[in-house]
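Help!! Second protein's tokens look totally different from the first
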Amino acid sequence: KAIQRNNAKDYLYNRIVLVIDTETLYASNHIIHGKLKGRALFVEVIGSPDCSDEASGECEYYVSKGKMPIEELDELPPYHPDCECEVIYYFDEE
């Protein structure tokens, strides 16, 4: 969802929503991760086709790792504004 700069009011509103969405996801992912870190054995970052991260490539990097030990997940999503990646937690080896 590209942000249009035609109208200053709409542009500002869209930027505010983008920041709120990104920061809310960041905070909730860290809270969930903190609660599950001691119990979960493995994690997997699931990407979305709508999630584009051409700049840093962090989405692709973590999604391509697949299921990994929880200790290997160095950074939680969101990896960029409008990131739609999610973390899946596994509590056993299956």
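Here's the second one for comparison:
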Amino acid sequence: PLDGYWLKVNEDIFFTFTGTQLTPSDTPYELHSGANLISFPYMGECAIADAIPDEFEPYIAGIISEGVAASPNPVLGWVGSLTAFQGGKGYWMKTNADIVDFNFDISNCSNSLSRSNDITIAEDFNQSTEQAFYFIEDIENIEVGDIVSAYCNDTKVGSREWNGSYTDIPAMGNDNSDLTKDYCTSNQVPTFRVEKPSGETYALTGDIPVWESNGLHMLSTLQEAIILPESYSLAAAYPNPFNPTTTINFAIPADTDVSISVYNLQGREVVSLASGSYDAGYHSVIWNADTHSSGVYFVKMVAGSYVDTQKLMLVK
């Protein structure tokens, strides 16, 4: 009665079991420092804050169940997708010290299970018996309703709808089954992406801890990753024809000295728009030709061995 269990099946089933109803005095748990897979052998459900007696809360580092987790926050209380214990489910109770004679307090628990608290596993990744959770305080440009997903080996290993600070993103690990063979392994760092309802997707960057089974990680802020270009390029100026300004965009895949100049039809340089070292990425310069006559000009970009030229038309 004190233990929790993973029940792995090869198809959907309705699983039932019989037994004797217990009371808290029947189940004094002895928890060791670290992760303990335990039961909640009572009818109904109970909010985490109610079920854990106050004297034990300082020693609980976090709680994990199937695809969901909770962690204590000194300001917000319990955060994460796991809000209540449910009868018939198992839990990893992570403690920072040995606890003798731990008992649940079910005096404020409901006698019936709430459908709203049933755990739903996303269809685009598989539940694993090896799992970790990343509680993220904030993400650049994130909005409630966006989907945040974790990846290992370019395979989606978990996702969660963003619902505010400290949303917990699951990251499933390889549990030696065919369904999880490309999932996270120890000492591997997962990557994260945001998918907005519009379909826009962008990668995230930040200080991300390595994956570990039953890991509960707190992250402060993840930023939108800057995607570097794969090659040098000089984009078409816009507008073109123009009067009197036009923007010239260019891309460099590595830190490079860049020269961009404008020449007239006689091949004489009329203005230098860029001359110096630029960081890898996407850049732009603006030519204000207010003091130049209408006509055809050429803009030339030189970056290392890369050279490109395009025609400009100034019309006044």
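Reply: Different proteins will give different token patterns, so don't panic. The helical segments are 48-51.
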